Amino acid sequence: MSDLPFTKDELERYRANEQIANFRLKGSKPTPEQRQMLADRKVADKELFAAIRVRAVQKVEELEACGGEAADAAAAAADPKLLQGYKTLAAKADKGLKKALEKALANHIAVERAAFLLPPMGTRDFFPADMRFRNYLFGKFREAGLAFGFEEYDAPVLEHQRLYKRKAGEEIVEQMYAFTEKDGYEVTLRPEMTPSLARMVLQRQNAQSGEIKEVLPLKWFCVAQCWRHEATQRGRKREHYQWNMDIVGLDDITAELELLAAIVAFFRSVGITAEDIGIKVNSRRVLNSICSSYGVPDAKFAPVCVILDKLDKIGDAAVKELLVAAPLHIPEASVDKMLASLKATSVEAIVALMGEDATQEMRDACDEMQRLFDYAAAYGFSDFLQFDASVVRGLAYYTGIVFEGFDKKFDLRAICGGGRYDRLMELYGSPVKVPCVGFGFGDCVIKELLEELGKMPSTAPSVDFVVAAFNEDMFAPSLQVATRLREAGQSVNMLLTVKKGRKAFDFANKVGAQYVAYVAPDEWAAGKVRVKDMQGTEKGEDGLGFDVALEDIHTRFSKTEVLPGGGGGGGGGGCAAAAVAAAAANN
């Protein structure tokens, strides 16, 4: 930006003045109409320059007398150059002001353009390379879900506000992109997917008996776009995609086991090991028993969990202050004991720490967790799991096991998290308890982790074939070749302008083509097409590619068959071969 303190209105006035005579004279004399426009522009500029100097003089007087606006005085104190800037404006002649305004306006327009071209705060553009990574990641999510027998589902990104206005208020309600439709209905861009899942499951439930008309347990997954209006920071955006997997209708620790196994399968599929990440496991049942033992009533348990979930972010002292203060008023001694219990490093340790205060409910919950760890060992992924009594998860609807994925090397945000939520369906009208467990896995932190670990997939472009015409006469025949290749299941980037030899092959290299099909007169007259393998594995008899008969294209390049090695026909010596040879020589 310009160092001189022009206002936005002054820059906009100068921009408007430019439009008065928005033309350039290239050595010719102006027409009478143009002369009038130039005169009008000169008058408008002089009026603007005079107004700028008047304002600058007033600002200088105000600041030197310390009698200006508080904001101006504070700005001048913070930036001594401000006063000097106003003095410079007041002293500049018309020519100098014009030059300074042109520079400032150019900077102003550049900033405006940059702000307009960037996506809204907290959102992302996905350029082709970004989409290649996104498709890779979502593909891995889907592979893991399908490998474990889950079915994919989806729901509208626009949801009912009331789905999220649950009991035991949560910050998620304050973060919604909520608005009222033209018909007066309150809706929101969904901040998370679980309430939508609950709504869909309840559509399949008998409202009187509570029976769900699906094969139980339901095993559903989705990759959903979610929106939360919150502070953007590393690993957190206002718009993100989330892989959700949920099991509905199974009240047993084996449901949690299967979900954790799917998460680990995903990690392994992208090259992430137990040395890179871990999954912390705890139980809300254990936490509830601890809170009850130390005098926390059930009515306060959910809001207490929301505060305890901030432990890693704000520390013991700040959490204690929030719990002791209104409206919770948890006794200080109880808070100290609770925080001490949350530092236990194993299931056995927490029972021992509680001693006589350990209730039967707590012992049962700890036995359940131990069974989960034992099953994980049998499943082959116990090295990813660790007990952590401080893991709470902020959402108020969790009722049992909770878990959270974290990285061990780079101090990133939680990679994923979830747990059991057996009472959520009742909150939305189910006449009976419907056991549920699930997790959410965002797309932002995992990308950061893959980047940090050096395990990002290639996002270079790729295509099976580039089809190029030797000349304009060969363009129509080349379209036939492209069609036959696509019918064989090949992806084809049709070169839409005729490029000779080397340029066609350079283009193929840039788009990551495996093959170039070069359609030239001599080969076409013989019913053939010259094909060059850009990866160099099939060179043909003359080392410059191989000819394929037009009627053999589908068979030769069918995606359903293994490509045979070697040339698909004679070496040939026609136009295409010459072009390939010339390109090879130039390279």
CATH H-level superfamily of the largest domain: Bira Bifunctional Protein, Domain 2
Q: What is the CATH C level class of the largest domain, in words?
A: Alpha Beta
Sheet with most strands: strand arrangement: 1-5-6-11-10-9-7-8
DSSP strand count: 16
- The domain tally reads 3
Alpha-carbon distance between the two ends: 46 Å
Query: Percent of residues in helical segments?
Result: 40-55%
Mean pLDDT: 88
Briefly note the structural class of the backbone: alpha+beta
Strand content: 15-25%
CATH fold node name of the largest domain: BirA Bifunctional Protein, domain 2
Low-confidence stretches are 561-572
**Biggest pleated-sheet summary:** 8 strands, mixed
Count the DSSP helices. Answer: 22
Based on the coordinates given, report the CATH architecture of the largest domain.
2-Layer Sandwich
Descriptive report:
- Helix 2 crosses helix 4.
- With 587 residues, this protein is an alpha+beta fold.
- The chain folds into 3 domains: 8-117, no CATH class; 128-453, Bira Bifunctional Protein, Domain 2 (BirA Bifunctional Protein, domain 2, 2-Layer Sandwich); 463-586, Anticodon-binding domain (Rossmann fold, 3-Layer(aba) Sandwich).
- The chain has helices at residues 8-20, 32-64, 70-78, 81-91, 94-117, 128-147, 171-174, 194-203, 253-269, 284-293, 298-308, 311-324, 332-341, 347-354, 360-379, 424-427, 443-453, 475-487, 501-510, 521-525, 553-556, 575-586, and strands spanning 151-152, 158-160, 177-180, 186-189, 218-227, 239-248, 277-283, 385-387, 401-407, 416-420, 436-442, 463-469, 492-494, 513-519, 528-533, 546-549.
- The strands form 3 sheets. It has an 8-stranded mixed beta sheet. Strands 13-12-14-15-16 form a 5-stranded mixed beta sheet, sandwiched between helices. A 3-stranded antiparallel beta sheet has the order 2-4-3, with no helix packed on it.
- Helix 18 links the parallel strand 12 and strand 13 (492-494).
- The longest helix has 33 residues, at 32-64.
